[in-house]
Amino acid sequence: MSTPAEHPRHQLNEVVHSPVRFSIMAALAKAESLDFKDLRDAIQVSDSVLSKQLSILEKAEFVKIKKSFAGKFPRTSASLTVAGRDVWAAHLQTLREIAGG
């Protein structure tokens, strides 16, 4: 008798799986980078929620945060790292497997 294969849910990345972080990754996967306010507006969260979730993704090395100035005004943008794009693709593939696709 063979051992059943492990359920695909065990392959989901827990860092990415949070709804807000999932939304951040999805938005960043569609662009080279996004300004903080554009990302905030796209996923409809507060500044503090976005900041905290970006910090978690940055610590996991899935997102790169760039701070600069536009004249006198600070500007923050975010982009997916190569590792972040790889994790995103694997996460989506696992969700497809779970959904039976």
Give a structural overview.
This protein is α+β, with helices and mostly antiparallel strands. Helices cover about 55% and strands about 20% of the residues. It contains five helices and three strands, in the order H-H-E-H-H-E-E-H. It has helices spanning about 15, 20-30, 35-45, 45-60, 80-100, and strands at about 35, 65-70, 75-80. It has a three-stranded antiparallel β-sheet. Strand 2 and strand 3 form a beta hairpin. The radius of gyration is 16 Å and the shape is elongated. It starts with 13 loop residues before the first helix and ends with a helix. The mean pLDDT is about 95.
In a nutshell, what does this entry contain?
This protein is of the alpha+beta class and 101 residues long.
Task: Name some characteristics of this structure.
single chain, 101 residues, alpha+beta, 5 helices, elongated, Transcriptional regulator, WH_DNA-bd_dom, WH-like_DNA-bd_sf, WH_DNA-bd_sf
Alpha-beta content class? alpha+beta
Bin the helical content.
40-55%
Using only CA atoms, what is the Rg? 16 Å
Q: Give unreliable regions as ranges.
A: none
Average pLDDT figure: 93
Strand content: 15-25%
Total count of helical runs of at least 4 residues: 5
Oligomerization category of the chains in this entry? single chain
Largest sheet entry: 3 strands, antiparallel
C-alpha termini separation? 27 Å
Order of helices and strands: HHEHHEEH
- Total strand segments: 3
Strand order of the largest sheet: 1-3-2
